[in-house]
Amino acid sequence: MRVAAPPAKPHVAARTEQIILFRISGQPFAVSSASVQEVRSVDSLAGVATGIDLPTLRKVRHVVRRGGKELYVVSGAAHFGLPASAAGLVFVLRKTRTALLVDGIDKMATMTRLQALPLAYCHEERKWYRGLTALDQNVIPVVNPEGFLNPEEFALLDASLVPEVMADEPVGEGMELPE
Amino acid sequence: MTPLVESTLQSFVLLRLGERRFAVAAVQISELVSPSRIFRFPHRTPKLEGVILRRGRIVPVCDVAEKLLGKALASRRFYLIAVRHYGDKSEWVALPVTGDCELIVAEMTDAGEADAPHVAGWISHNGEVIEVLDLDALTPGAEDAVGANTPVVVLEVRP
After folding, report:
1. Residue B30 forms part of a structural domain
2. pLDDT tens readout for residues A49-86
3. A137 and B53: CB-CB below 8 Å?
4. Could you report the predicted ipTM of this complex, rounded to two decimals?
5. Inter-chain contact A122–B89, Cβ cutoff 8 Å?
6. What is the three-class DSSP state of A151?
7. 8-state DSSP, A154
8. For the whole model, what pTM was predicted?
9. How do beta strands B48-54 and B20-25 pair?
10. How many structural domains does chain B have?
11. pLDDT digit string (tens) for B117-149?
């Protein structure tokens, strides 16, 4: 399903960002709506996704070929080390060959302030998140779309593919978001 | 006229963790606040519980009891908000404590070579010898990250 671009909004002085609030294994996250190209039902991937079995990269179990490019489907639960959950939606992320499995969307919201992740957080999470935002008396991590797979992981995944068996995905049902 | 006497007296905040008391230099303490809701999200840094919202700022909560006592705190009454330095930057961190804190003035003896890295020194107060904590060594920061000081190797792939 394609949706029309929203009407242009009048210019506002404060810099804001539209975000999508979603859940993975019950844990709330946010992502900039500008970095999500498409939201699809997991069911729509059936038949077009090819299995991947890399013991060192369990968070990626499927790949979809679209427009001559491979799109790696990352389990959000496995990436963040959360308990496995039944994903209902997949976010196709812009500017990266990554799609993210999520439980579902809570709502859209407007982020007025993105605070840097405190420096006490000093491990992989610094790549996972763009920062934190306070919304309705909650603190939500804002994910970095480019933080799900690093260049070495992309190289590993690319090397694992057998090109001739992968057919290009036909246009399916999904909700394409305006850039 | 009182003669000028060089003094090494400093102010310290005494905090209680379980049955033990520790000290932190008072200049590093911002405030003592009641426990508030902790917001948790996935991460890989040990000793961090989550974050709290304080005066519009997002403050990480560092549980230092495990390292100092060898066990987690059974109860917590306050968060001691302290300043933690990260190179030339500084940020607030919240330390859960189990009791009231006390401001004292004492003379610190510097830590010895045998002391743990998180011990900045020692003070004596009411017949008790108390560890002065070095928060920069006690709480996590970039220096704890694996390979933090290792240069990143970028692999260039050419056709």
Report:
1. yes
2. 999 999 999 999 999 988 888 999 999 999 999 999 89
3. yes
4. 0.84
5. no
6. helix
7. H
8. 0.83
9. unpaired
10. 1
11. 999 999 999 999 999 999 999 999 876 664 444
